[in-house]
């Protein structure tokens, strides 16, 4: 036989995640203080398999610690394992690299704190995780979102520039650590101009590539392609948007260099900071 219909299953919303978690937690002894609603809120974008994996990881962590029940501490660690991979505490990095990573992550964290309305910083760490991550800044939205505004896209791009800009300002050099950030920034700027119609210069128009039309099974010979002149305008507009976000990130970190230093020094000392600790550092004189 053959399949002639594609059924798209969207990731569960916060209510769905809560119900899925309850199913997977049925045979797990939970600590009295555990709040399933909080866990559901901390796992946007997780699908059923991610949630099942998270519960399993949390149970294993509790067992390794000799605990009789699984608490929020184990679930918080399990969420990070699913998102960023397991901690690699045996991976030894030099003091200089540790300092660079600390400033890189502090750059992300500080800009996220300085721009109103960005997703809250849940945790920032310079403990290596997974295959390649030497550090990470974990931002978690307060609620599920199905729409994103132009301002929100630009804010996210500015936050993503925080790491590279911090390296540049402090060490007068940049590293390969910002590769993934730059890829996401470039992709976001491209989508703003070519898919979302968020460029005031290019207007509310979608510019599609030939490859996309083939994937959609349409006849590309009937699809009008834009001219080389328009292609050049698109490139210039993408570059302009990226450069504006870069400049914004640079201005924010330059004007708050004292806070950047405080965050980085605290990260070097503790290796991991929770949201409350970040707030206390930034509020201190």
From TrEMBL:
Residues 34-77 form the AAA ATPase AAA+ lid domain. Residues 91-281 form the Peptidase M41 domain. Residues 246-276 form a coiled coil. Transmembrane segments: none annotated. InterPro entries: AAA_lid_3, ATP-dep_Zn_Metalloprotease, P-loop_NTPase, Peptidase_M41, Peptidase_M41-like. Its cofactor is Zn(2+). In the C-terminal section; belongs to the peptidase M41 family. It comes from the Bacteria. This is Cell division protein FtsH. One of its GO terms (biological process) is proteolysis. Keywords: ATP-binding, Cell cycle, Cell division, Coiled coil, Hydrolase, Metal-binding, Metalloprotease, Nucleotide-binding, Protease, Zinc. It holds the Pfam family Peptidase_M41. One of its GO terms (molecular function) is ATP binding.
